[in-house]
Amino acid sequence: MTNVRSSDTRMGSGNRRTITQGAWRTLIVLMAAGLLAVPIDAQDDRAAGREIVKKWQAAIVNVRVVLKMRVSVGGREMQSMDESVETVGTVIHPSGLTVLSLGALNPGAMMNKMMGGGGSGQERMEFGSEPSDVKVRLSDGKELPARIVLRDEDLDLAFLRPTTTPDKPLVAIDLADEGRPSMLDTVVVLSRLGRVGGWTPAASLQTIGAIIERPRTFYVIETGSANGVGTPAFTTGGKVVGLLTMRSVQSGRPGMFSMVGGSEGVGLLPVILPAADVRDIAQQAPEK
Fold first, then answer.
1. What are the start-end ranges of the H helices in 57-198?
2. For residue range 164-206, what is the model confidence (pLDDT) as tens digits?
3. Distance between CA atoms of 284 and 99, rounded to whole angstroms?
4. In Å, how far are 117, 252, 253 from 120, measured between CA atoms?
5. Antiparallel, parallel or unpaired: β 60-73 and 125-137
6. Alpha helices in 80-161 (DSSP H)
7. For residue 100, what is the enclosing H or E element?
8. Average of pLDDT values for 262-271?
9. Are 247 and 274 spatial neighbours (Cβ–Cβ below 8 Å)?
10. Which residue of 9, 105, 164, 226 sits 20 to 30 Å from the alpha carbon of 264, by its own alpha carbon?
């Protein structure tokens, strides 16, 4: 009986070796045929993205602002309210100079553009918003009171400076270390979740789907929507491409089915404004 069990064991072991060798040969054949190709580039992009998050996550901050919202019809104010709004900004200087989307601080102007000045005379509806009580929440949870020092409505940019000096220099993205992607290149977009997400750093891989060259350069991500404006995009090599903003053009009074064509139907398009342009405008921000 003992010899029989020993023979069965050896036979079982031989079968296992035969199956393993057969599976290995099959795997080699499939890989040679390209049926099990491993997306090395995709893995490299993800690894690069994680390194970019580690390096620059502290430069992505949350911004809270209280807005005085007004709605008027025919020049007569119909409604007024205070709204607390949270958005995301990017620190671009160790002193705390922060850039973000102006649309987040002045949604009234954006809504007016979307409405296209709809109505006339007594029927014309307009939205107004006035920001106050601006605070920047750093990655460590500390809040700094801030004020708006510069706005650029054409490029949808707003710049903030803390009204109190930070205890130590802040992590700031170097806009001079610029990268210029080509169409279909992968870029890493950084962001930060809000209160519900526990202020957690966030990132996504996006593809450059178009490059607008006139009247100035803009990069358009393939998805056609920004994962939160006011945040930076990087090449997978770690160079900063620019800042996600909202490009707007006067589209006139929108038709009933304007939104069928997406945001472009109402004259809005999320784009990446090149880092050099953001840097040039930031140099105009007053020190005090």
1. 102-105, 107-115
2. 889 999 999 999 999 999 999 999 999 999 999 999 999 999 9
3. 13
4. 8, 13, 11
5. antiparallel
6. 102-105, 107-115
7. strand 98-101
8. 63
9. no
10. 105
